[in-house]
Amino acid sequence: MGRVIAAGVALGLCAVLLGAPPAGADDVARGKLDLAVTLDDRPIANATVMIDPAKQVELTVTATNSGGTALKVRSVRVSGVALALTFFAYDTTAPFEVPAHSRVTRTFVLDMADLSGQAIGLLPSTVELLDAQRGTLGEATTVADIRGSFWSVYGAFGLAMLVLTVLAWLTALLALARHRLPANRWRRGLRFLPAGFGTGLVAVVSLSVLRLVPPEPAIEIPVVLGAAVIAFLLGYLTPHPAPGPGGDETVRFPDATKEFNR
After folding, report:
1. Model confidence over 33-50: pLDDT tens digits?
2. Other beta carbons within 10 Å of 168
3. What is the pLDDT of residues 71-85, one digit of tens each?
4. How many angstroms separate the CA atoms of 172 and 194, rounded?
5. Please, are residues 138 and 35 in contact by the beta-carbon 8 Å criterion?
6. Cα separation, 210 vs 51, whole angstroms
7. What is the CA radius of gyration of the chain?
8. Angle between helix 2-17 and helix 185-209 axes, rounded to 10 deg
9. Average pLDDT of the chain?
10. 217-237 and 185-209 helices, crossing angle to 10°
11. CATH architecture, domain 31-146
12. Does residue 11 or residue 21 have the better pLDDT?
């Protein structure tokens, strides 16, 4: 059971630590667009924008091409990411071309009704313009305040991590109470480590769902690693497991016919 819990928490940890792969040479060579994006006439740069799945969203994108080659846009994508996992993504096909040294503005009306079952709370979000090969021509980032359901995919993910974390703590504390922790301090610390990672993940998701702090890498990684270090130290500093009290033991001498208890 302990291994299953540790594996579940480890999957969440990998999601935090594994980021997107670095851009390749093709991405560097491909021209880029500078984007200015508004959502319902509100600029998204350096702002938190509210998205209500019950309402349509008017997305206006102004793309500026500073290069010497015209760039062809095939679609626009709106996505939200937390813990390096994409919890929602909407693609709208709307081909247009941005000539060299020029600026083009396009407006899209997005129906995001399905978002209610996908996410809730604050999520780092991105608006991207994609070419025919699904490569990114330009992007703009923001923090979206999703007015979704608590039972959405993101909410269910947080609940699953909470259950695994509680089980991890119960397993470690029961082993401590029953004097079944390893004698080696480092191994005792490792026994508490999954519970610490889980606590950090639950804290990150909870702060996001409660609309207090978005789960950005600059926040989520220190929180998760800090909780893991604290849990490891708790396990490391636990007292040496003492053997349980023994019951009466009968000793029989080979050359005697009497028994006595000690």
Report:
1. 999 999 998 999 989 999
2. 26
3. 999 999 999 999 889
4. 9
5. yes
6. 15
7. 27
8. 60
9. 84
10. 150
11. Sandwich (2.60)
12. 11
